[in-house]
Design brief:
The protein is an alpha/beta fold and 405 residues long. It is built from 14 helices and 18 strands. Among the domains are: 158 residues, FAD/NAD(P)-binding domain (3-Layer(bba) Sandwich); 98 residues, D-Amino Acid Oxidase, Chain A, domain 2 (2-Layer Sandwich), CATH 3.30.9. It has a 7-stranded mixed β-sheet. The protein has a 5-stranded parallel β-sheet with strand order 8-2-1-12-18, with helices on one face. It has a 3-stranded antiparallel β-sheet with strand order 3-7-4. The radius of gyration is 21 Å and the shape is globular. The C terminus is likely disordered.
């Protein structure tokens, strides 16, 4: 008999895992608490280490129908006048080094792509996981539904892909304390016809200034501009992508900055706002027939733009480990999955903490030294430890990066 695999959570990580498990010939069902599948959020970077695996399941080429391929992954600008500090060319050089391009996309478009690739019967909506129990043979899940009484199912494997506030994680790891970073994020979408022309280019632009930074790039085939602003949180402590913020509060944070940035802000009709919390890597992901994936396993700060990519890396490893497993060996296979993925994902999680401080330097000697250092940098090759993960071609050249392999 085939393994019975249940995935809790129908976001990018959960659906991505289901697709890779199906490709490996495994029986999988995704349980999602929402009555209809929709991704909360806006823009997302789809880096080469995410694009390559999507190619293995036939989805990479379909990114072109909605995603924007970056000509430059990073364009750094000075806060007060937009002076360009550094531009990192991407395009063909990124493909040459890493076997794939780098894209930016709307999360909802990416989720729709995944959903269309998954047979409808393998996705169960309106199933909110409320309890997880297991014995030496199987795992039992209890779901609350709006449509009727609680539902129970049993499975050989349960994968918790249910996000930062994971229910499944409670059955695996001790409660982890979230540390407040002191920062919060504003996020909004601007229609392209209202945005300044410089924001429509296929470029990810980062404006650096004292205590804060501002990012924008086009998504949805260039129809929208995604805006992300990281600022001191003040009294804001809500960690939710659905919490509403105020455009006026966002504008106040960037008083005195280049007017093109304010044109973007003024063109937005609404903004979301959430506080950034940091978490230490988990000591374990797996207990018996239960394991974790994506944010449930390694919630990270957004400064490396690797959250979704790491979830897809998880999915690839999980499918590889479970491909040949049976009921007698499946728990060993889950431990092997953790052995492969936890060190890598934990490292990315820790490294994601380091970017904010350098981006927020006040004007002065350290800021001038940082800006001067851009001229000697090569972020594309320095990102080999991220973008080149698992890649064999050009290995010798990639080893010449900043020593991070």
């Amino acid at each position: 008999m085939k393994l019975r695999i249940a995935i809790v959570g129908g976001g990018l990580g959960g659906l991505g895992a289901a697709l890779f498990l199906r490709k490996a010939g495994l029986d999988v069902t995704v349980y999602e608490q929402a009555p209809d599948l929709r991704e909360i959020g806006a823009g997302i970077v789809v880096p080469p280490n995410m694009v390559r695996p999507l190619g293995e399941i036939g989805l990479a080429d379909k990114l072109l129908t909605f995603a924007v391929r970056l000509d430059a992954a990073w364009e750094f600008r000075r806060w007060e006048d937009g002076h360009v500090l550094f531009v990192q060319p991407m395009g063909n050089e990124c493909e040459r080094l890493y076997g794939a391009h780098c894209y930016v996309a709307h999360r909802a478009d990416l989720l729709t792509l995944f959903q269309k690739a998954l047979p409808e019967q393998q996705l169960r909506l309106d199933h909110r996981c409320v309890n997880v129990n297991q014995d030496e043979h199987e795992v039992e899940l209890t779901f609350a539904t709006r449509a009727g009484p609680e539902a129970k199912i049993t499975a050989d494997v349960v994968i918790g892909a249910d996000g930062i506030h994971s229910t499944v994680r409670r059955a695996v790891a001790p409660k982890i304390d979230a540390r407040f970073s002191g920062l919060c994020v504003f996020r909004c979408l601007v229609p392209a016809n209202k945005a300044p022309n410089m924001a429509l280019r296929p470029v990810q632009t980062l404006w650096l200034g004292p205590g804060r930074h501002f990012v924008h790039y086009p998504i949805s085939g260039g129809q929208l501009v995604n805006v992300v602003a990281v600022v001191p949180a003040g009294e804001w402590r809500t960690e939710s992508w659905t919490a509403d913020g105020e455009i006026s509060d966002l504008a106040k944070e960037f008083e005195g900055w280049d007017d093109r940035l304010h044109q973007l802000i003024r063109s937005a009709s609404e903004t979301k706002r959430w506080a950034l919390y940091d978490r230490d890597p988990l000591e374990r992901w797996t207990v018996g027939g239960i394991s974790l994936l994506g944010d449930a396993a390694h919630a990270m700060l957004p400064f490396l733009a690797q959250g979704a990519a790491q979830a897809i890396e998880d999915a690839v490893a999980l499918a590889s480990c479970l491909r040949s497993a049976d009921r007698s060996s499946v728990r060993h296979a889950l431990q092997r999955y953790e052995e492969i993925r936890r060190p890598r994902a934990s490292r990315v999680q820790v490294m994601s903490r380091g970017r904010g401080g350098a981006d927020h330097l006040p004007d002065g000697p350290e800021q001038r030294q940082r800006d001067a250092g851009f001229a000697h940098g090569d972020p594309l090759r320095q990102s080999a430890w991220l973008y080149g993960h698992g890649l064999q071609v050009n290995a010798r050249e990639l080893e010449k990066n900043a020593g991070m392999t």
